[in-house]
Design goal:
Structural class: alpha+beta
Family: Belongs to the protein kinase superfamily. CAMK Ser/Thr protein kinase family. DAP kinase subfamily.
Largest sheet: 7 strands, mixed
Number of helices: 10
Keywords: Apoptosis, ATP-binding, Kinase, Nucleotide-binding, Nucleus, Phosphoprotein, Serine/threonine-protein kinase, Transferase
Distance between the termini: 54 Å
Number of strands: 14
Organism: Paramormyrops kingsleyae
Shape: globular
GO cellular component, one term: nucleus
Order of helices and strands: EHEEEEEEHEEEHHEEEEHHHHHH
Helix content: 25-40%
Bound molecules: adenosine-5'-diphosphate, magnesium ion
Catalytic activity: L-threonyl-[protein] + ATP = O-phospho-L-threonyl-[protein] + ADP + H(+); L-seryl-[protein] + ATP = O-phospho-L-seryl-[protein] + ADP + H(+)
Strand content: 15-25%
Length: 327
């Protein structure tokens, strides 16, 4: 049988073109003191400045051994996916990779605005406005459509893995964390990968095949959270959350959704569907009426001479590193 040369059975890519540097990372980068940017079970992300350029990056330190298992190939896959997505402005850029005896270090474009999670749960005045949600959701969908077109499923889409280039003024999104991502191919089934309880689709809980539609479920949850600041299926414990998901225990007439525009609710309804094949695809979502609503007229901003109806939401050339910091 034919197995694609660069793809193993488990949906992992194994070919990368980024050179893996083995000289000392700390000779080339200095830590910027302060809180670490993030931390997961096996990774910690910290802010560094590249000595020779003065540019700021996020360095993701990933342990190669996890629970006594060698996970180097999974990290190589994460690198390969970032490489595959370099031409999408909505996926974080990979600058360099270092390797030590125990770790791999991914030097990533720094997303200065942090996780969209923070705005999701913020007080009303700091929370996203409906037009922000529409603009950011379009970017997320364009990023995901690009990945899906290239047979990559993210499988861990949640507000902690969608970052912002800046938070005030609100910048653009960057999708991060391809640690659970997989290649989906027509000739082999993928099951069993586990995301984060609140955001996983019913087919994951039921050990049914995973597909690009699995991400689309999570997009539905994400939309709900960005619009309401609450998590639609979260129960008091894991069991209850799983039950809520597998029973699609969601009400569209709750207090949380009061005042949310009907097209946005229809959008979520087209995704939070048990049967994966019936969910809207990323491309279909981009055509959804909710996302066709025109952006609000620009506020006069000094030199601003924007004709009504014209927007600046088309991505300008996204360069190598964190824009939006200088403003
Ligand atoms: P994990 O696999 O441990 O979840 P992530 O790649 O999601 O690792 O990184 C963990 C956290 O670190 C993210 O949720 C985010 O808060 C922060 N982070 C990751 N990458 C960046 C980046 N490029 N810029 C700024 N913060 C980042
Ligand atoms: Mg993460």
């Amino acid at each position: 049988q034919v197995v694609e040369a660069n793809q193993s059975r488990s949906g992992l890519l194994s070919d990368i073109r980024t050179p893996i540097k083995t000289d000392a990372f700390h000779d080339h980068y200095s830590l910027i003191p302060g809180r670490e940017l993030g931390r997961g079970k096996f990774a910690v992300v910290k802010k560094y400045v590249e000595k020779c350029t003065g540019k700021v990056y996020a360095a993701k330190f990933m342990r190669k051994r996890r629970k006594g298992q060698d996970c180097r190939l999974e990290i190589i896959h994460e690198i390969a996916v970032l490489e595959l997505a370099t031409s999408s402005p909505w996926v974080v850029d990979l600058h360099e990779v270092y390797e030590t005896a125990s770790e791999m270090i991914l030097v990533l474009e720094f997303a200065a605005g942090g996780e969209i999670f923070n705005q999701c749960v913020a007080e009303r005045d700091e929370a996203f406005k409906p037009e922000d949600v529409r603009r950011l959701m379009r970017q997320i969908l364009e990023g995901i459509a690009y990945l899906h077109k290239n047979s990559v499923v993210h499988l861990d889409l949640k507000p902690q893995n969608i970052l912002l280039t800046s938070d005030s003024p609100l910048g653009d999104i960057k999708i991060v964390d391809f640690g659970l991502s997989r290649m989906v191919s027509s000739n082999q089934e993928l099951r069993e990968i586990m995301g984060t309880p609140e955001y996983v689709a019913p087919e994951i809980l039921n050990y049914e095949p995973i597909s690009t539609a699995t991400d689309m479920w999570s997009i539905g949850v994400l939309a709900y959270m960005m619009l309401t600041g609450t998590s639609p299926f979260l129960g008091d414990d894991k069991q209850e959350t799983f039950l809520n998901i597998s029973q699609i225990n969601i009400s569209y007439s709750t207090e949380e959704l009061q005042g949310i525009e009907q097209p946005a609710i229809d959008f979520m309804k087209s995704l939070l569907i048990k049967e994966p094949q019936q969910r809207a695809t990323a491309e279909e979502c981009l055509q959804h009426p909710w996302l066709q609503l025109p952006p609000p007229p620009k506020e006069a901003e000094g030199a601003g001479d924007t004709a009504s109806g014209q927007t600046c939401s088309v991505p300008l050339t996204i360069s190598e590193s964190g824009e939006g910091e200088q403003g």
